[in-house]
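Quick one, tokens below:
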């Protein structure tokens, strides 16, 4: 199946086979005579598609599964008026064209029998074996997804558990949802929209993460047509305008074929039309579409080294667009995807995007985990010995899925589970960080040391007091980059726990759920500051030693509109009177108060989360309560001897206590100092900043605006 269909209403098929009319085949299967010496026409098309990928496959079990499915569903009809058998047939054909192995196809044919007919799991086990029974049972537990909004969280929790035990369960479920989406027009508009929204929020991201691009792209187009009909029609009109015209990519493709042939590189060069959502995204990104934006060139070769050989020839013989180059072979995506992406300028200035991959990479790019076959084929005894309720170690299970399985067990509240699931699936990029012992941690992009602590140590991370990133001391709020080495520092006191501010820096569900759970169990316990200890630069001047403080009561002089809830001042922007402030509700119901101009506030508005009104408490005479407060200041200066001593003296003279300090390595004779200070009275802040600016060599002092992950 092609991952990039031009029309979601049309089902892409291999060129060697015409499109199959499943409605006609379903009626033939039920009513037409079938000679005993051959398969029925309906399952025969599935067998053809299966043999194209697995020439030596035993079709006998598929025949028996079809006979059982047809007889058990006989008399049942779909809402569209078709015989029900057309549904499992369509689902199985989708998987067969993706290259699924025989066991998956057998379970797909039977996936609705236990749920909707008199067939039992014991019968399935007796006739088809433990593996098929296991898969049918897993899919059965995912049925009735369309309960209603209240039931969806628990339904998808079951889906997640079943997927983790065997990714083939989710493969069947995705194909099942694709066929249902193809025939969704028979439902009421409001039900179409609800099903499409759930598909968009959960199933499409799951398809992306499992690497099944062929299913993901068609699901995207079908959802696009329902949830954004105006955008869909505009895109359809744009594609219709260029359909039938000479393809501007054709001459570039011919030039590429000639170039590679002359270089002695055996390659297949194809023109791949973009699907609807892809065209829509390109249009939104560029504003106006180029004639070549409706498709891309796909170059398929035999070996990994050939991919780089093709890239070298293209960049030598054509003008490359350097900003478009990406290497997903050396650094594969988290969903198994591998390919080289580039763009070149062809005749008359036309720009063509080019994908370069091996035939094997292409199969995995299209079918993802489906292309990996039976994950237990290497150890058949493991599959035979496992009971349907047992958890099995799936060698194809991606790291992100293992993490989801870990945290879903801790998310006892369905709403928490649903929210965190959608937030985690929205992360479309992963990073890998390394422990000092050589172990690796897979984390979503934007994860901090807080996330790494909980990913590595679980609940022991409650006692984390800091970290070393690439050998340098770092705060727990430090955002990690791909390839970083992280050493987490744990306190000896096991009774200590996290600060509520850790929630501002936690991006992973595991960290959020663990922190929220500890805070709920210890409502009166003060925790360590999220900023952790000072991080002196290894090769720069040494800062004053930090003093650790507790965070309890820091926001006592702030009033937040709405129900009474725990309130604290944000560590990312450290607001003090008379700053204009606003509150953001974080996990656990606590409110973090930020300055109005804090970047975290803008990010929350962008994702549709409305801040709550907040203001400084006033005394009886109308003056603002300017009690003790904490603030982070950044001093920019020219490097000179005794600069650090003079700055710390100015701070001490203003009666401010240094909680944490950082001095970055000098750059072009300029030095950046960051101080987190405790002031006895917020009214003294302007005078303190003036005193710091008056220190010789200091040319600017400003309030810090640290990037913080909120919500």
């Amino acid at each position: 199946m092609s991952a990039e269909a031009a029309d979601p209403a049309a089902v892409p098929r291999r060129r060697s086979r015409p499109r199959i009319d499943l409605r006609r085949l379903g009626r033939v299967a039920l009513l037409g005579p079938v000679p005993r010496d051959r398969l029925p026409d309906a399952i025969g098309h599935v067998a053809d598609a299966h043999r194209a990928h697995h020439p030596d496959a035993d079709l006998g079990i598929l025949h028996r599964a079809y006979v059982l499915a047809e007889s058990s569903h006989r008399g049942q009809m779909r809402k569209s008026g078709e015989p029900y058998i057309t549904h499992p047939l369509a689902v199985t054909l989708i998987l067969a064209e993706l290259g699924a192995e025989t066991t998956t196809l057998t379970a797909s044919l039977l996936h609705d029998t236990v749920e909707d007919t008199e067939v039992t799991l014991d019968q399935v086990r007796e006739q088809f074996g433990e593996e098929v029974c296991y898969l049918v049972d897993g899919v059965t537990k995912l049925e009735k997804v369309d309960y209603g909004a209240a039931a969806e969280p628990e339904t998808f929790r079951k889906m997640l558990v079943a997927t983790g035990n065997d990714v083939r369960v989710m493969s069947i479920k995705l194909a099942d949802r694709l066929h249902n989406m193809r025939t969704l027009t028979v439902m009421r508009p409001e039900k179409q929209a609800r099903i499409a929204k759930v598909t968009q929020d959960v199933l499409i991201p799951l398809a992306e993460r499992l690497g099944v691009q062929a299913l993901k792209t068609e699901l995207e187009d079908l959802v696009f047509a329902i949830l954004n009909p105006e955008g869909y029609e505009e895109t359809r009109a744009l594609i219709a305008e260029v359909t039938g015209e000479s393809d501007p990519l054709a001459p570039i493709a011919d030039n590429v074929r000639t170039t590679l042939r002359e270089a002695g590189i055996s390659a297949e060069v194809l023109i791949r039309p973009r699907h609807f959502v892809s065209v829509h995204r390109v249009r939104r990104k560029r504003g106006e579409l180029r004639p070549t934006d409706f498709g891309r060139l796909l170059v398929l070769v035999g070996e990994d080294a050939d991919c780089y050989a093709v890239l070298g020839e293209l960049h030598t013989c054509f003008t490359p667009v350097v900003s478009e180059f990406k290497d997903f072979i050396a650094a594969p995506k988290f969903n198994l995807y591998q390919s080289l992406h580039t763009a070149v300028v062809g005749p008359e200035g036309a720009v063509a995007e080019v994908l370069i991959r091996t035939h094997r990479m292409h199969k995995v790019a299209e079918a993802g985990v489906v292309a990996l076959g039976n994950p237990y084929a290497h150890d058949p005894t493991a599959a035979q010995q496992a009971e349907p309720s047992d958890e099995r170690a799936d060698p194809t299970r991606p790291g992100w899925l293992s993490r989801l399985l870990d945290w879903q067990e801790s998310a006892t509240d369905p709403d928490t589970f649903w929210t965190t699931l959608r937030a985690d699936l929205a992360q479309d990029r992963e990073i890998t960080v390394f422990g000092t012992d050589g172990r690796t941690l897979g984390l979503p992009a934007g994860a901090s040391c807080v996330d790494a602590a909980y990913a590595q140590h679980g609940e022991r991370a409650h006692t984390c007091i800091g970290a070393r990133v690439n050998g340098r001391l770092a705060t727990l709020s430090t955002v990690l980059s791909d390839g970083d080495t992280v050493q987490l520092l744990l306190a000896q006191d096991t009774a200590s726990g996290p600060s509520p501010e850790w929630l501002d820096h936690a991006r992973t569900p595991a960290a959020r759920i663990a922190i929220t759970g500890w805070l709920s169990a210890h409502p009166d316990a003060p925790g360590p500051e999220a900023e952790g200890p000072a991080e002196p630069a290894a090769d720069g001047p040494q800062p004053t030693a930090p003093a650790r403080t507790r965070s309890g009561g820091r926001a006592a002089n702030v009033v937040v509109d709405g129900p009474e809830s725990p309130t604290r001042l944000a560590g990312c922007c450290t607001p003090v009177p008379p700053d204009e402030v606003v509150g953001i509700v974080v996990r656990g119901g606590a409110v973090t108060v930020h300055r109005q101009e804090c970047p975290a506030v803008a990010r929350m508005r962008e994702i549709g989360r409305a801040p709550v009104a907040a203001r400084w408490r006033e005394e009886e005479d109308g003056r603002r309560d300017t009690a003790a407060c904490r603030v982070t200041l950044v001093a920019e200066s020219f490097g000179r001897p005794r600069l650090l001593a003079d700055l710390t003296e100015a701070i001490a003279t203003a009666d401010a206590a240094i909680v944490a300090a950082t001095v970055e390595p000098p750059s072009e004779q300029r030095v950046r100092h960051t101080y987190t200070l405790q002031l006895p009275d917020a009214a003294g802040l302007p005078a303190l900043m003036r005193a710091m600016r008056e220190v010789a060599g200091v040319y600017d002092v400003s309030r810090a605006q640290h990037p913080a992950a909120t919500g």
